[in-house]
Amino acid sequence: MILSMKFSRPLTVQLIALAYLLSPLANVLQASAASGHDTDTVLGRALMGFGLAGTALVLGGPLAGIGLYSGQRWGFLVFFLHSFGLLADSGVKLAEGSFAYRSGILLVDLAVFTAIALVLREDIRAPFLSPAQRGWRMGQRIPVSGAARVAVESTDGPIARAPRAPVTGEASVSVDGLAVAVTLVNISRTGMLVRWPGSLPAVGLVGRVDIPEAKASFRIRVVRVTEDGAGLAFVDADPRATEAAMIVLVDRR
After folding, report:
1. Which of 8, 108, 133, 200 has the most CB atoms at less than 10 Å from its CB?
2. Exposed e or buried b for every residue in 63-99, given b needs 16+ CB within 10 A?
3. What are phi and psi of 56, to 5 degrees?
4. DSSP strand E in the chain: where?
5. What does the pLDDT average to over 58-82?
6. Which pTM does this prediction carry?
7. Are 187 and 245 in contact (CB under 8 A)?
8. pLDDT tens digit sequence for 113-161
């Protein structure tokens, strides 16, 4: 699990990194096809004829691929330095060679421009430039649905869940276009538990609860379901109003 979190990369990053890792081989094959010589001959001549700049470009491809895959800022910078170096070198080479050779260079330029455009997308570049581990550098996120209980702590200690008070009475809950008569089970300043007849609502639905006995109405969200009931959280409700409804219902119990 630790390895999968550490090396989780978008497919776009993986493919571009692989292309740059293999770029020296691609250069040899391109030159071989354009010149008509076998790869051994092309490779030998290339090694003999490379200057400092040519050697840096050849070795820079795998380095840029490794840097890009690393997810680190230095890799991001190396990738762009190498890419712009390739484009500058291509501009010089376009003035020489056969039509097939120049066509190959133009295809390489198109691939480099495409790689740059993809890496500059916000969802790809942002994690590279962030000082903190964020985005895809933190590993793949899998969308899920369901209810969960969260324990929150402050510097003053644990924050207790709002106390529930058992109550009786009826209420009407409107969700998903339907009004359902429910029975109150308990209530707090932040929500309530109700006994729900028939098919239970889906977690996440937003609606409204009307409590005639308390002469109150609140916007609610379904946050959990039980075997025969549902937990409803008040949404953007005035705490004074929910506490007043709570007091009325508890007093009438």
Report:
1. 108
2. bbbebbbbbeeebbebbeebbebbeebbeeeeeeeee
3. -60, -40
4. 153-154, 157-158, 165-166, 170-175, 178-187, 191-195, 206-211, 216-225, 229-234
5. 83
6. 0.42
7. yes
8. 888 888 888 777 777 776 655 455 554 445 555 555 555 444 454 445 5
